[in-house]
Design brief:
heterodimer; A: 210 residues; mainly alpha; 7 helices; 76% helix; B: 208 residues; 8 helices; 80% helix; extended
């Protein structure tokens, strides 16, 4: 019974979402707010389980050092009490500092070293040539090639236009990458839409046979 | 001093300890301290989630109290927030009631809004795919080949299209995205270093 009600409710909610295509209306706004409320509830429940499992439970078992993050966490709420509001900066600074450290260590491993290593290919076939030149020219375009008015001097500065060549190659690679990613995203979103329509016209209004 | 310098010192120490664990030769004390700091951050961040909920509650309660435009939708938001927080906290996220809400309320709206993007993105492509210069031509060509390569009609038009589409995704797309990823990584490292060294202090807010 609960599942049947749920299935029809799902159908109604999907129709409420699609009603936005006509114009913004109450049904869409209610669905949107219901979603935000649920998402926030999920975040609170997840946050509480983190506090309990990583902070309160080990503290009860005698790991008193955990008083530090718990106090820092409570200090975040000092912003609501003006005389002590500056204390909310302590946990904020702690989070930012630790996050910066985690970002550096994570990015160096996963994004920098791994990606550079994967680009060090022997230039023995077309794929590898495109990969190496494409990656290098994209990077050069972002980091070293001046754009706008400054770009005017590039050709004059290097004499034979290597700067322009790298810039154009970089641009072409970026445009092809963005275009293909865009096309891929369109198709992914369309498959989402097809799945929803299949649900609506297969289970709610049975027009499509199983 | 306490209002600006102490937070900067705390941020510097937290960042340096995490970096020290990674870069310095293995040391049991530093390893455990670094792991602790990362775990503590998760705990503090969990408190920050509550801060977001308090803000949401405050904003929507005020909206209802003042009967501002859309106050009825705020009731839906608060009802959903309070109900599912209570169920999640007291019965657990694996309880049948919470799972029912997740499967029949949260998921359909999420997938409904996600599929709405199909319409938005299609209308955006109609507006952006104009053959103005060679760069916009390359952009359009990449998108059209990948889109046609993934549907049956593409293969009917040109037998090799799916293979070309796969090649574009595997080689030029990877090359471009890799270049962007490396550039982004360098930027993230530079910004993180600025945060640790206290040069970036916008997150502390204005005033003293």
């Amino acid at each position: 019974m609960a599942d049947t009600v749920g299935t029809y409710l799902s159908g109604l909610l999907i129709v409420a979402c699609f009603s936005y295509l006509f114009k913004e209306n109450r049904a869409f706004t209610y669905a949107e707010h219901l979603y935000v409320g649920f998402a926030a509830a999920q975040a609170i429940v997840l946050g509480w389980s983190n506090i309990k499992e990583m902070g309160l439970d080990p503290l009860r078992q005698g790991k008193f050092i955990l008083v530090i993050p718990l106090v820092l966490g409570v200090l975040l709420y000092a912003r609501y009490y003006k005389p002590l509001s500056h204390l909310a900066r302590f946990p904020l600074a702690f989070m930012m500092g630790a996050a910066a450290g985690v970002t550096i260590t994570g990015v160096i491993d996963a994004q920098l070293v791994a990606q550079v290593k994967a680009t060090m290919l022997p230039m023995t076939n077309l794929n590898n040539v495109v990969m190496v030149l494409g990656t290098a020219s994209t990077l050069a375009f972002f980091l070293f090639i001046p754009i706008g008015k400054k770009a005017e001097g590039v050709k004059a500065a290097n004499g034979f236009g290597a700067g322009n060549l790298v810039r154009n190659l970089g641009r072409a690679t970026i445009m092809l990458a963005f275009g293909s990613s865009y096309g891929y995203t369109v198709m992914a979103r369309l498959s989402y839409l097809v799945a929803r329509l299949q649900f609506l016209f297969g289970r709610i209004i049975p027009l499509i046979p199983d | 001093m306490t209002r600006r310098t102490v937070p900067l010192i705390i941020g510097f120490l937290a960042g340096t300890i995490v970096l020290g664990k990674y870069f310095l030769p293995q040391n049991a004390f530093l390893d455990s301290l670094g792991t602790d700091v990362v775990n503590w951050r998760t705990i503090v961040a969990a408190f920050a989630l509550g801060l977001g909920a308090v803000n949401l509650l405050g904003t929507h309660t005020m909206r209802i109290a003042r009967k501002e435009k859309g106050w009825d939708a705020s009731i839906v938001l608060l009802a959903s927030l309070v109900t599912f927080t209570a169920i999640g906290l007291f019965k657990g996220t694996t309880s049948p009631v919470y799972q029912w809400g997740f499967n029949y309320l949260y998921q359909p709206i999420y997938s409904g809004i996600s599929s709405l993007l199909a319409f938005m993105i299609t209308s955006a492509s109609y507006r952006s795919f104009r053959f103005k210069d060679w760069q916009s031509g390359v952009l359009m060509l990449g998108a059209v080949i990948v889109m046609l390569g993934q549907v049956g009609i593409g293969e009917l038009l040109f037998r090799g299209l799916p293979a070309v589409s796969s090649w574009i995704m595997a080689v030029p797309n990877t090359a471009g995205m890799r270049g962007i990823a490396i550039g982004g990584a360098l930027g993230a490292i530079a910004l993180s270093l600025r945060v640790i060294l206290g040069l970036e202090r916008g997150y502390l807010g204005g005033g003293q």
